[in-house]
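#struct-pred
JK: can someone run the complex with phosphoric acid mono(formamide)ester? inputs below
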Amino acid sequence: MKNFTSVDDIQDLAGLVALAKAVKAAPFANQELGKNKTLGLLFFNPSLRTRLSTQKAALNLGMHPIVMNLNTEGWTLEFEDGVVMDGTASEHIKEAAQVVSQYCDIIAIRSFPTLTDKEKDEEEYVISAFKKYASVPVISLEGSTEHPLQAVADALTIEEFKAKPRPKVVLTWAPHPKALPHAVPNSFVKIMKKADVDFIITHPEGYELNPEFTEGVTITHNQDEAFKDADFIYAKNWSSYIDYGKITSKDSSWTITPEKMALTDNGKFMHCLPVRRNMIVNDAVLDSDSSIVIQQANNRTWAAQAIITKILEDDGK
Ligand code: AN0
Ligand code: CP
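RT: done, structure tokens with the ligand placed:
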């Protein structure tokens, strides 16, 4: 594996999930692999899970992680080519990416979308620029259109908790007060398409995701119908894609309640976290045994460790 910036970079999902299970069972078995190597984590946005679990994964592999909050502590970067830099940006990504490549063996980046400039977001202009100018492998810690490390943790969690060979998995929209990105649902859709599951998406009208991601997936606007006999409920808010970055509904009838969970087949509740209680999901669900969000967050370490292992083993090939 050269870079990991999309679920599309996964050649063999079953093999990757098996590797994640193996590193979970023996976290320190491969400490020579990362010896004397450095993982650089660059954050343009906040994080709890991604920041800590990816560092932990690196440490488990004997690697040294170094972390920087680029948006608050670094120079403002310019991403356009050929511009006169007479504005706020002090440094061009061309130099920045080459310089960081000399300090790090892998560069990992978190960069959320603008949610105002669809074209720029879809180009993944930050992560793409790092890929273009860096001389080492690049990992996405959530870009503007995908969150692939989250998706690997999600696939591992479903694999661990499934009670039947082909479980029914539902991705449901839920309300939120702020406009959120599409990266988590997009990557979840992509990985569920590769997994051995019955997959269905439910959301209010107007919340269609980019059809390039959802092509071939059953979509319904009837949440209750979708929940029937489900084994996993994966809740997530996202802003409108059609009315790009806008909140067109905060309909509280889409909040996940115990009554809705009762429609499922003893279904498990999943969310990538951070989650807003009693907006996305009621306390009674999140605090119940059906919630596996904490175990899901634990799997972020093993997903990251599996990906870093693949990159180091292939030496970025
Ligand atoms: C982000 C999002 O929805 O993409 C990060 C989730 C991992 N969530 C928030 O900003 C609340
Ligand atoms: N799920 C996730 O990526 O969480 P953080 O934003 O806290 O990293």
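RT: quick notes.
The mean pLDDT is 98.
Residues 7-146+298-315 form a domain with the Rossmann fold fold (CATH 3.40.50.1370).
JK: thanks, will look after standup
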